[in-house]
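Deliverable D5.2: sample structural annotation.
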Amino acid sequence: MSNEELLQIQPLELQFPFELKKQISCSLQLINKSDNHVAFKVKTTNPKKYCVRPNTGIVIPNSTCDVVVTMQAQKEAPPDMQCKDKFLLQSVLATPELSVKDITAEMFSKESGNHVDENKLRVVYVSPPRPPSPVYEGVEEGSSPRGSISDNGAAHQYSDSNAMLKGLGEQKETTAEGQSLVSKLTDEKWSALQLNQKLERELEILRRQARKSNGIPFIYLVVAGLIGIFLGYLLKRV
């Protein structure tokens, strides 16, 4: 930085964290280390693409001024992320009585006889900042959080598998017991039906014999009643 420069500029290039369809801003700091008032003006090769605030101003002695440059949202990324846009910062000495509204374009013309400092600034696209990585609690120092999560996930998966196998085993045992009980009840019902048919046949024989003898002995009625009660008991049990 030469001693003849009226303003120091930080940084010397405009860095935009480029993102599609998003308005992006960056700032410049103009530093006046002299005892003079310095007027400045900011120009660009692409005025429709950028908004500069303030684009003109006065930096009082031993002070700074911040300039914010905003790039409009872009629909497409440039080839190889290279930008050809340029900015030009012009500065001249000003009187203490000069106000910002009194600054004119003629002040920065070399034909005016004023000493005009010119600093060319290029535009650089940089990658947008990455979001901070999440911090996992309960992880020992020196261990990998991702590894811990993976281990816990494997343990949970192993536990779930054991529970599933256990449940399938219990379900299988329950199914086997149910099938055995159904088979037993079916056999008992079949035996009761056979016994019922046998008793009905014997009862029919007794009825025929009673008709032939023109009367039904009392003992036969008792036997028939007992048979009916016995059959009803068996059928309710099955």
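Annotation notes: Helices lie at 145-212, 218-237. Residues 145-151 have pLDDT under 50 and may be disordered.
The annotation will be released with the project's public dataset once the embargo ends.
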